[in-house]
Amino acid sequence: MPATYRYPIYAILLAFSAFSPFMFPEFGTQLATLWLMIIVALSWDMTGGQMGYNSLGNIFFYGTGMYVAAVVAISLVYDVGQYTDASGGGRFDFTPTQYFLGVALGSLAAGIFCAVCAVLIGYITFGLRGPYFAIGTLGVAIAAGELVSNWDWIGGGQGIALPVYPGDLDEGKIFFYYLFCGLGVSLIVFLAWLYSTRFGAAINAIRDDEEKAEGMGIHTLRYKLITWAMAAFAVGLAGAFSGFQLIHFEPLETAYQTINLGIFMVVCVLLGGKGTLWGPVIGAVMFHVFKEVTWNYFLGWQWVALGALIVVTVVYFQDGLMGWLKHVRPQWFGIRIEERTPAGRPQPEAAE
Asked: Alpha-carbon distance 285 to 291, whole Å?
């Protein structure tokens, strides 16, 4: 798309994102969730689309981000073990300063901790290829959920109840919307720059042919670890924000929800188009709207509708919406196709 049209469209989208919670105040939570879907889809595509390593375990970073942020926020004021003790019956109050400090420090700690975990786990799992890597990462996420659900110090199976936003409920919705929106916009801008650098070319080379990339002198393991760590940092932050937004969460159904959000983030990328910047964004928007409509108007059949969407996408749009558009409208992506005569020679341009 020419810059003449591209930048005005970006400006309109940015303005819409900035004012949407005031334009649609009754949908504040849904709008925040939309940005969450965009964040996790973009993060998954960093390794699955750009690097060719399809992970089913990115939900591990989401759930771990929730718990790390909660532990940090609580430990600034109270003893975590007493706070999570189901039989304690005590009253635990947080001042506004303590709350916002806990959100800031807890979220930062969650992102850093998840990035470190990605490096440590990656040293083992990146020795696997193809479906073995996907199954290995899924096993990590499932194991983490089971371990956390049996760890009484952080609430065990009952989960953790975090402090409520210290203000009006509608203010809280706007506050969390801008947290997710700010992270999502920052991630889009960062990835637009990253994919245009030598780093982006290197991870694309790993996706296309890892052996050849190594033969060209690319330190593939280093690039894979750094890429997954960056993705884990973003997902960890998103998990931390979700923990404070939900107020109460538990390990298996909320934090490490492998059969819900863990699958949804992959479907968003497949729907929009793997290996592109805007494919995961468009796919996340389409999927979230589809999910909200079916959950509200086809309750009881929502999973059937979701399954049908996945089947149609995989069978008829294997490259996603962006791939299909690139095929039918290549000029939108700056691809010029020369018309040829039957003899195979380029068609001469008509004289003005």
From this structure: 10
Residue type, 116: V
Q: Is 213 exposed, middle or buried (0-12, 13-18, 19+ CB in 10 A)?
A: buried
pLDDT digits (tens, 9 = 90+) for 289-299: 998 888 888 87
Widest pairwise Cα distance in the chain: 87
The DSSP H or E segment spanning 160 is strand 160-161
Angstrom distance (rounded) from CA 347 to CA 324: 26
Write down the H helix ranges in 126-168.
Answer: 131-149
Alpha-carbon distance 178 to 32, whole Å?
Answer: 8
CA 292/CA 262 separation, integer angstroms: 17
Using one digit for the tens of pLDDT, what is the confidence trace for 234-270? 999 999 999 999 999 999 888 998 888 888 899 899 9
Separation between Cα atoms, residue 188 and residue 183, nearest integer Å? 9
H or E, element range at 128: none
Q: What is the DSSP letter of 65?
A: H
Residue 4: is its pLDDT beyond 70? Answer: no
Contact predicate 278/323, CB 8 Å: no
What is the DSSP annotation of 206-225?
Answer: HHH-HHHHHHTT--HHHHHH
* 160 backbone dihedrals φ, ψ, rounded to 5°: -130, 140
User: Can you give the length of the chain in residues?
Assistant: 352
If we measure between CA atoms, which residue out of 113, 141, 136, 140 comes closest to residue 125?
136
> In 3-state terms, the chain is what percent helix, strand and coil (to 5)?
75, 0, 25
Taken in order 137, 143, 147, 149, the sign of the CA dihedral is positive
Paired tokens of 151: 């760890």
Tokens 């929730």, located at residue? 66
